[in-house]
Amino acid sequence: TEAQDEPTLEQQFAQFQTQVKEIAEDLTEKTKTTFEQLEKSEFAVKTKNWFTEQFEKMKQTLSESFN
What we know:
Elements lengths: L1 H4 L3 H32 L1 H25 L1
């Protein structure tokens, strides 16, 4: 009968749970990939290097001031 062909509430919930898990895993992987790409981007590398240089200059200036 038609009623027998329809999934039970438990089956629907299990299917929904599986779909949510797949979406979450996909989103996690995409987010991870995006952050890895950003971390390795030319802009990120140049920015990190610039901050490192500025910090070293500041340390040098402070060191010279207190000696």
